Amino acid sequence: MADPRPYGARGAALGASLGLAAGAFVLFFAQRQTGGLWVEFARSLLILMATFWLAWGAAQALLGLWPGSGATPRRAEPKGRCAILVPVHEEDPRATFARIAAMDAALAETAQAGQFDFAILSDTRSPSGAAREASWYLRLLRDRDAQGRIFYRRRSSNAGRKAGNIEDFLKTSGAAYEFALILDADSLMSAETIIEMTRRMAGEPRLGLLQSLPGVIRAGSVFGRAMQFSAALYSPVFARGVARLQGETGPFWGHNAMVRVRAFAESCALPDLSGPPPFGGHILSHDYVEAALLARAGWIVRLDPDLTGSYEEGPENILAHAKRDRRWCQGNLQHARLLAAPGLLPWSRFVFLQGILAYVSSLFWLGFLATSILAPSLRVAPDYFPLPGWSFPVMPPNETARTAGLIIGVLGLLILPKLLIAVQAIRSGRAAGFGGPVRLLTSTLVEIALSSITAPIFLMFQTRSVLQVLSGRDGGWPAAARGEGRLGLFESWQASRWITVAGLAGLAAAWKLSPELTPWLLPVAGPMIAAPLVIWITSLPCRIPFAVPSETAPDPILARQESIGASWASLTDADPAPSHPEPLHA
Amino acid sequence: MTDQVTTRTDAQTDLQHEAARLGALPAAPLAMPRQRLEHVPLRTRLARLRALIAPRADA
Fold this sequence. Notes:
The complex is a heterodimer.
Chain A: H1 7-30, H2 37-65, E1 82-88, H3 93-108, E2 116-122, H4 127-144, E3 150-154, H5 161-173, E4 179-182, E5 188-189, H6 191-203, E6 207-211, E7 215-217, H7 222-233, H8 235-246, E8 257-260, H9 261-267, H10 286-296, E9 300-303, E10 310-313, H11 318-334, H12 346-378, H13 399-428, H14 437-470, H15 489-513, H16 518-529, H17 531-538, H18 549-552, H19 556-569
Parallel strand pairs in A: 1-2, 1-4, 2-3, 6-9, 7-10
Antiparallel strand pairs in A: 4-8, 5-10, 6-8
Helix pairs in contact in A: 1-2, 2-8, 2-12, 2-13, 3-4, 3-19, 7-14, 10-12, 11-12, 11-14, 12-14, 12-15, 13-14, 14-16, 15-16, 15-17
Chain B: H1 2-22, H2 42-58
């Protein structure tokens, strides 16, 4: 259960992060070259901001590793009903409805079977997509014999997008339910977890929202499986750290979370912000705002990382990830408008600021690299005898040593938490789910290498997103890219040639202006130059054995979904609705 | 050809009507008051105040 006053954890994490950032600033500025004072000050300031962000991430991991699991959450048998909401927008209905069929079948085998309804809330606009949905819905309904238990509604207008879709449901049918489990089209949850969430909600009447920790499943590409491994190994620890930091002002990630319908209805009808997008209009990252509004109204918002049996699917290639990240970037930067929103708790404001920093930090890094390349050309000749009367020469600091120190610091903050999490997994026996200690360590090292290669590419995509939003470009509401993510080399080249050009330009500038920095820039410029190759190769099917618990000891809900998916695989989109009304018992 | 397309479109429309009929959500309305997330600008407050006072001044 969340600590209602997590001030100690917050103080420790903030203090350590600020301390490290200030230390980096002082060390960097104190070691400045003679002349170019403002350039050196700007570089030191950029390193301060970037270090703070890295240290903040590391602090969350360390908090998550700290022993102790907190108090046991209170439970009670729920008296009301629960609606399981599945908002869809141009999704593949066969895959989405197979997940619903699996969850419905799993719930049907429990004593609480009658307490749950599903509502498929469609925002699909294309006529062909709507026709497919209708057809597959009828199949689902007949297979599960679920009329009056699995509902389907398609809106005539997409007002408010996903948040407006859920709001529309609550305004129409909300009074029939005590709780609502909000899912995404790719969400899958075990019946035990869903029931456990209703019990925890019933056991704590002040609990407005309970967030589970979704694990990533069904990844097939190199990139997807690395993300899946990373989510399985690191995320539970980071989530425990986040839960300790946030206490009762926890996060909402938009899906795989249960809300108390009355609390949500009273507190979470979002207004449009004044002005045009991307900063005005509809609130894009509505989940963070809804969490803040629930907290403003006095409700507890809690993340329980021990809630396993909660799954989602992740992007299968870097381009799909970058596309999703573009949307998140706009949503998080839009939160700048809400930093001073009336009545919010200070921690909610800080969470908004944290989201903004997550994206703006890419500008800090790029700014730092650019000023580092430019700095030598702005430098004046060194003065070896700056003090009058002092007969010993003062040597200028070594730029190479400074850069090496910086790289070691950055790698420490990025890699050390991952290694500590791997060691803890081995010590606690969690490694068994990852194929044993040796396989776990190998996978961790490969993941670290892979994420180091992809990091500069993400830095560029993120920088472009931030600049697009700051220049007023709205990203719209594209359908989520799901399914097989295999890309062609030409497609990868077309999407990332600008990164190659930027990498080559950066390296050429460094070679011309500060040749001693060139080797140190290679770990950043190299992957940038090779971006099309990296994007293409990481989208291919994975041969690296990234073992994860959802595969070594799979949850029965996964097998159930696979079985239903297989039974539907032979049906065509044109006519999935059965001519016979026999229900399928998966 | 046109007949085939028309027939398919009709069939799709029928399926959508059938899905909407069988999938109709339960009617149990709940109020959701719109939340305020922005401070009301001073100019707007003054305008509201003026609108409040104006009829009395006329009277």
